[in-house]
Amino acid sequence: MSYGLIYTIPFASLKNETCIIEIEKEGYIGSVTELTPAENPFSVEIVDDDFIYIPTRFSTANICIVGSDYLQSLYSTAYQQYRVTFKRNNIITWCGFIKPELYTQDYSSKLFELELECQSAMSTLEFIPYKQIGEDGKVFVSLWTLLKNAITLSNAKYNSVIFPHVYSETEADYPSDIDNVLKKMNLSEQNFFDEDDKAMTYKEVLEEICKFLNWTCVDWRGDLYFVDVDHRGDYWQYSLDMKSWEPGKLPNLLNVQKTGFFGSDHSLDFVPGYNKVTVKTSNYNVGNVIPEEKFDAIVKRNSSGRFTPSPFPVIPGVRSEEMIRVGQKETVYSLFNYYEYEQVYLLGSSLCRVCIYSLVSQESGSYLPNITEFSYDDCVCIRTKNRYPTDRTHWQEVRLEQGKEVLTFADQLPYASYSEGAFCISGQVAQSNRIDNHAYSSSVGSKSALKLVCKLEISGNFWNGSKWIKTDTTFTLSVNPKNTGYTAIENTKVLGMPYDGVNGYIIELPELPIIGPVEFTMYTPQYADDVTAVYLKDFKFVYVKADDSSEDDNSDRYYENVLNEDYINELDEIELKISSYNNDGACYSKVMLGDKYLEDNLYSAIEEKLIRPEEQLIRRIINRYSDTHIKLTQEIQEVPELTPITRLSDNFMVGKVFINTGGTIDYKMGKFRCIMVEA
């Protein structure tokens, strides 16, 4: 977005600092109007929360001006239409946007004070739905890219973005690792879309990343901080585009008495302790790899219930197999048709509901069915042989050639990390040997052996029928009927395979994960000469994890810790939608570290060992909240040395160190109502 300056509000602080509020409008080209500041023209409030491990701590701002213009044009419904930048001594100190649809003004006089409520730039991410990066479908994306995109979409004007140097791939990589490990941590974009393809917002994505890393995102005096309250080491200071960086140190301990008080509103509170913490990882299981097609075609019948006589001779008293075939448009599958004759395709695949019945000829010459109501099979019909008239007495036959596509999928199949399990393909197949209407049943049809020719690929890895290879190839699903009608696809599961509850064609996955989208294609079946159509129903392609790969079938996993079971003060359950892998099967929510799952193999400089993020979070909370903590609220001078990562001390609290967790800044007076929680 491009913005043009429309209003300025200049004022001087009590310390004689030059201050200016700039209001820009999206797409604006024109003159700039100077507005008159009120007595308290600009203040910022930082969200306060006693729990210091919250994922975001953003701010709001209040602009107050004096005038007779209602400035109603500022109150739009767009969340990023009017950008507000506050500068002190020409340095950006706050950036955000005027809140849409919020309006407060005095209506009793010609000259009045007008208040404009603003929210930080990062807060506006709650209005922006996540958008996939890949044009051809959802892909794997790094945590670093997700953070970069979120900051870019905020349209902020931060001076810098500051990260704690906490994590590394291995202990040997720390502290010399200048290539941020977040660039190596990836997960599927599908994790940010639900089953109905509704997207999370970028603010929700940002919050989930911060919860997973045990960080808090804070906008503070023109900078964006990712704070780790337990980190005592270095921080990295990045440019806004996050292309360049320089190392930074934790600020020195700041004494509030030396900072100077600015008021008498001081108070002391106690923050409660916790001895039980539960972290729930909301696993987003892959489940059915191929979504099931919906069959919802409605059959319209005339009121008489009469059946039209068959166009072929029916011997009186003898049953003739007939078929009602109701076609419909596919929504999940992508099907193919070939050989057009007089605007009708004679060969190929289609979606249909099929009802097989028998007509019995009566002495009266009418025909009666042997059924009292319709019973349909929902199928994919593959017409392999057909005929068309060349003249009134001759017919020409056509056959479906080998290698023709008959079934793929309209949308990209799941992009995930697959390992420690198997794919299972199941379904039932029937074959017609009638060329007149391709009917089949339990008493008529072909008994010939059949093979469904398929191709399965994941990012250049192909299944060849016995193993995964790097060469483009196909494999076959065998169907060996003993009778007419439907026969199940051959079950290749053998004793000892750890996949209870499924039967069908088993494709075991390698130990190392294969990452990418599943690509599945079915080609012309290998069929006998007399077969005119192949019907496929109940077709399923599922991922199944090994029986011993998880404690139970619950899609969620819980981590917890109890210090004192006699007296439990429990923290509210923390839910993570990004998580490490703990024998959970194929899940979109699992992070990859390089070409392997992130498990308990992430190095943390805080604990100086390899950790699992969920378990580290519990240890952090228990260590910090096992006892009550002191909370101070003090009115002090607003000084640049005080940042979200600055530790504070108070002469009246000997031996205690505090962390700033929020408050209110009055930039005209240089006053900070600072909220401090014991570290």
State the distance separating the first and last CA atoms. Answer: 41 Å
Q: Give the fraction of residues assigned to helices.
A: under 10%
Stretches with pLDDT under 50, minimum 5 residues: 302-313
The number of helical elements comes to 4
Shape: elongated
Q: Round the mean pLDDT to the nearest integer and report it.
A: 89
Q: How many strands, which pairing sense, and closed or not: the largest β-sheet?
A: 15 strands, mixed
SS class: mainly beta
Radius of gyration: 34 Å
Strand content: 35-45%
Number of strands: 50
Describe the structure.
Mean pLDDT is 89; it is low at 302-313. The strands form 8 sheets. The chain has a 15-stranded mixed beta sheet that branches. Strands 22, 24, 25, 26, 27, 32, 37, 38 and 40 form a 9-stranded antiparallel beta sheet that branches. Strands 23, 30, 31, 33, 34, 35, 36 and 39 form an 8-stranded antiparallel beta sheet that branches. The two termini are 41 Å apart. It has 4 helices and 50 strands. The longest helix is centred in the C-terminal third of the chain and has 13 residues, at 613-625. The protein is 6% helix and 43% strand. α1 (143-153) packs across α2 (202-213). By secondary structure, it is mostly beta strands.
Features:
single chain; 679 residues; mainly beta; 15-stranded mixed beta sheet; nine-stranded antiparallel beta sheet; 4 helices; 6% helix
Secondary-structure topology with pairs:
Layout: E1 3-12, E2 18-26, E3 33-34, E4 36-46, E5 56-57, E6 59-67, E7 82-88, E8 91-98, E9 104-105, E10 112-120, E11 140-142, H1 143-153, E12 160-164, E13 167-168, E14 185-188, H2 202-213, E15 216-220, E16 223-227, E17 235-238, E18 245-248, E19 254-255, H3 256-259, E20 267-271, E21 276-282, E22 319-328, E23 333-335, E24 337-341, E25 344-361, E26 367-369, E27 377-383, E28 385-389, E29 395-399, E30 405-409, E31 415-418, E32 421-432, E33 450-458, E34 461-463, E35 468-469, E36 475-479, E37 487-488, E38 505-508, E39 514-523, E40 533-545, E41 556-562, E42 574-576, E43 592-593, E44 596-597, E45 602-604, E46 609-611, H4 613-625, E47 629-637, E48 647-649, E49 658-666, E50 671-678
